[in-house]
């Protein structure tokens, strides 16, 4: 479970919550919900407890009680570090959430940071940085004088990119992920920043990358608009998204998938004219390949090679 440490601060409530967890481990969801409810009678302001109660009710197929418990968690912690709002939204026939609560992503990755690479690379066969580097190479990318890695995490994308850029920056919303990235010593700049709140500055980048990040961002209009206004002439954006059917789809995994049409529409509206899409498998989720696609886009022809006579070779 995502959130603050799983303790209410009330010893008896904690014991009841532990007992509820034991019942849940045996799939006795109704009993788990009942015992958890009794724990919350002792600790009614325990947001993480309400979130957990919602999960028990959900597993017990009591959607209404689950939503009530999740709403209570949000009432107590309006930043919604547990992602309770996403759970409520997933209950709707047509989800309406368009982005993740920042506090949820931050908490999720702060907790995940120490085991992120072992899990993603070691167990889930993550390919994001390789896929992006390959797609960039295919359109003729050779080097960037300045590149920014959006949602840089622990720096896996940065490691793949470092040798091919003179200056490399990284933004992430999770301080713990940033700490891991900093340890690698490969970034010239790292900053804690919510990508949904990026503002255009005087800085211009030859390359803007986002590997396996837009699945947490959801609606892409703002971040792609920012990228369009932050690229140097002939600059490129390169990113991955999970492939979906609907324009923007919130999945049970609490990650977003995007359709090809939606992504192309957002890019074209922002002024990108030269766009390549490459199908890929980004990683595994519960043993199943996650189908995705990688995008490289530019406003000018994707060029960067010169032929023997010094003429430009247009790659796309
Ligand atoms: C699956 S990890 C990928 C990390 C890295 N790009 C890589 O390829 O290993 C997603 C990262 O995006 C960050 N992230 C998600 N939503 C964000 C947001 N709105 N603003 C900033 N960072 C965000 C998370 O904190 C996390 O580090």
Automatic annotation (TrEMBL):
One of its GO terms (molecular function) is methyltransferase activity. Keywords: Methyltransferase, TPR repeat, Transferase. TPR repeats lie at residues 47-80. It comes from Marivivens donghaensis. InterPro entries: SAM-dependent_MTases_sf, TPR-like_helical_dom_sf, TPR_rpt. This is Methyltransferase domain-containing protein. It comes from the Bacteria. It holds the Pfam family Methyltransf_23. GO terms for biological process: methylation.
């Amino acid at each position: 479970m995502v959130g603050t440490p799983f303790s209410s601060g009330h010893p008896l409530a904690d014991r009841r919550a532990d007992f509820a967890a034991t019942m849940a481990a045996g799939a006795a969801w109704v009993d788990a919900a009942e015992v958890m409810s009794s724990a919350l009678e002792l600790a009614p302001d325990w947001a993480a407890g309400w979130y957990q109660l919602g999960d028990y009710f959900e597993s017990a197929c009591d959607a209404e009680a689950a939503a009530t418990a999740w709403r209570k968690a949000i009432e107590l912690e309006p930043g919604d570090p547990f992602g309770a709002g996403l759970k409520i939204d997933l209950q709707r026939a047509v989800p309406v959430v368009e982005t993740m609560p920042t506090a949820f992503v931050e908490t999720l990755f702060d907790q995940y940071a120490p085991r992120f690479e072992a899990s993603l690379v070691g167990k889930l066969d993550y390919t994001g940085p390789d896929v992006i580097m390959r797609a960039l190479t295919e359109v003729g990318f050779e080097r960037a004088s300045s590149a920014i890695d959006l949602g840089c995490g622990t720096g896996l994308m940065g490691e793949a990119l470092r040798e091919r850029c003179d200056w490399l920056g990284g933004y992430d919303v999770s301080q713990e992920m940033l700490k891991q990235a900093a340890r690698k010593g490969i970034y010239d700049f790292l900053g804690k920043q919510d990508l949904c709140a990026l503002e255009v500055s005087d800085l211009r980048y030859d390359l803007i990358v986002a590997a396996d990040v837009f699945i947490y961002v959801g609606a892409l209009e703002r971040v792609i608009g920012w990228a369009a206004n932050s690229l140097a002439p002939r600059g490129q954006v390169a990113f991955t998204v999970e492939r979906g059917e609907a324009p923007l789809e919130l999945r049970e995994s609490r990650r977003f998938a995007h359709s090809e049409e939606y992504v192309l529409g957002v890019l074209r509206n922002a002024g990108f004219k030269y766009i390549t899409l490459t199908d890929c498998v980004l990683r595994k989720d519960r043993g199943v390949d996650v189908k995705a696609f990688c995008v490289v886009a530019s406003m000018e022809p994707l060029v960067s090679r010169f032929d023997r006579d010094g003429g430009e070779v247009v790659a796309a």
